[in-house]
Structure formats: C-alpha cells, structure tokens
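During the practical work, I worked with a single protein chain and the tokens that describe its fold, as given directly below.
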Amino acid sequence: MNFWMHTKTLLNPLRNGFKMIELLTMANEVDYDVDAYSQQLEDLLAEKLGRLGKLKEKVKLFRQQLAEEENISRTITEDLEKYAKH
C-alpha cells in the first residue's frame, strides 16, 4: 500500500476544488436553484466523507501492520538474546 499516494490523490485540491468553485459561483448568483445547490453540496460532502472514511480505514490497517511488525521484531530480538545467552 502506498499510503502517501492515496493521501495525495484524496486531498488533491484541484480535483476536489472544481466542484466547490462551481457551487460557490452558483450561490453568488442572485437567482439560483437552492434545491439543486443544496443537493449538489450534499452529494459533494457525501463523496468527501466516503473518501475520508476509506482513508481512515487504510490508516487503521497501516497502524495494525506497523504494530504486527513491531511485535515480530521484538519476538525475534528476544529469541536472539535468549539464544546468545546459551
């Protein structure tokens, strides 16, 4: 898993920002469709929350892998120390 690649893609302001700019432009107009605006904003937020949820899960799995590797390393070190004493 390339954690930084996923993070960079997820948080890319160009990709995520275009829709927000479109919504802000729409809201600045005197006569705009409030229902369409609110629906598009809700959709955008749902998409962002979904991506953040996926990123959070990947971070959780990454931390679990780190903990497992630390346990393996500790076990190997302890075994080597025991072996060296005998």
Summary: The first helix runs from residue 3 to 10. The CA atoms of residues 71 and 77 lie 10 Å apart. Helices lie at 3-10, 13-28, 34-85. The chain has a mean pLDDT of 82.
